[in-house]
Design brief:
By secondary structure, the protein is mainly α. The chain has one domain. About 80% of the residues lie in helices and about 0% in strands. It contains one helix and no strands. The longest helix is centred in the middle third of the chain and has 23 residues.
Amino acid sequence: AKAFLFLASDGASMITRVNLKVDGGAGI
């Protein structure tokens, strides 16, 4: 369960990073 949650949160942060780059060019 911990591994699944880690992967899920990691994937979400990766998507957020891509969205921010596309939206405002801010890489977090």
